[in-house]
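User: I'm preparing a small set of examples for a lab meeting where we compare how different chains pack in three dimensions. I only have the primary sequence for this one, and I'd like the structure in token form so I can line it up with the others. Please keep the answer compact; I'll paste it straight into my notes.
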Amino acid sequence: MTPLDGVYYCDLRPVMQTDPFLKREIKRLDQLICEDIWQLIEAKAR
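Assistant: Understood. Below is the structure token output for the 46-residue chain.
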């Protein structure tokens, strides 16, 4: 697939949404399912 772009969590802790570094690196699991996976599939299809 691709290099790890971040980490996905089901249940984000409050600090994961307020700390600038963690906010940038940690994503919600629904973002993987609804957005990132489709972008990966689309990029591989080109």
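A couple of notes for your slides: The beta strands are 7-9, 26-28. The helical segments are 14-18, 20-25, 29-45.

User: Perfect, thanks.
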